[in-house]
Amino acid sequence: MKWFYRVTLIIGSFILILSGILIYAFKIEPYRLKVTDYVLSQRQSDTLELKIVQISDLHLKATFNTHNLEKVVQKVNQQKPDVVVFTGDLYDNYAQYHDDQRVSQTLRQIKTKFGKFAVYGNHDYGGGAGQHYAKIMARSGFLVLRNTSKTITLLNHKKVLFTGLDEAMLGHPAISAMTANKRVDYRVLLMHEPGMVTQFLNYSYDIALSGHSHGGQIKVPGLPIVNQKILAQTALAETYSQGWYTLANNLQLFVNTGIGTSHVAARFGVVPEISAYHIYI
């Protein structure tokens, strides 16, 4: 009967481990939040620091609502940002859940020196969200950049251009000739889907910030093929899925893995993140 007890012990251990993984993936990791700092240029005697904080893919829903959003806002404000950018997907499904007034009240509490900019994500069009997203963000103090740009001037008179692209799958991303020829000291390109960056490599931007991929949301250790198949389920995220990429013309692309969840309300190995970029201009 020893074999029976051994098999029982193995099965019991497996069930305990699997239960622990599922509890962590559904109940713990989605509610964690890390801040990652990146220094993108070296301080010089004639430069000033510009601190850009990026949030992405909130995917607000009944199980991740304004109570959770308040914690995100608190964490963002702790960074004392000069600029905050949101790279799309405010609600997970507007038709199923929305709380526009409280969402705007909460996002409005984000404080910056030079402004808050947002772009559309694919979920900001779907579920009826397209009729409301721009108004919600405007009431939140964000300027929505939809194939448009905004220039800020730093205290040393250096000019920084922020261009926001329309969402790729349901919108029509483009950059105008006027924007392309604008004379500034630094250029930031904001987009939702990282895969669309290849269409805009010849526009002399210094960095491009995106989201959308969630880093796959579920990353199984030691199984890269499985993780790639998971990523393949998200259009325009298969090639650039997480972190930094150096592209043509020295464009630096960063893919933020987002804060919320979609399809499955779980994260494993991809902790929700806020990105802070320190740029000396």
TrEMBL record:
Keyword presence, Nucleus: no
Spans through the membrane: 7-26
Keyword Membrane tagged: yes
Pfam families reported for this sequence: Metallophos
Keywords: Membrane, Transmembrane, Transmembrane helix
Domain (Calcineurin-like phosphoesterase) ranges: 50-215
Top-level division of the source organism's lineage: Bacteria
InterPro entries per record: Calcineurin-like_PHP (IPR004843), Metallo-depent_PP-like (IPR029052), Metallophosphoesterase_sf (IPR051158)
PANTHER family, per the entry: PHOSPHOESTERASE, TRANSMEMBRANE PROTEIN WITH METALLOPHOSPHOESTERASE DOMAIN-RELATED
Stated name of the protein: Metallophosphoesterase
Organism annotation: Agrilactobacillus yilanensis
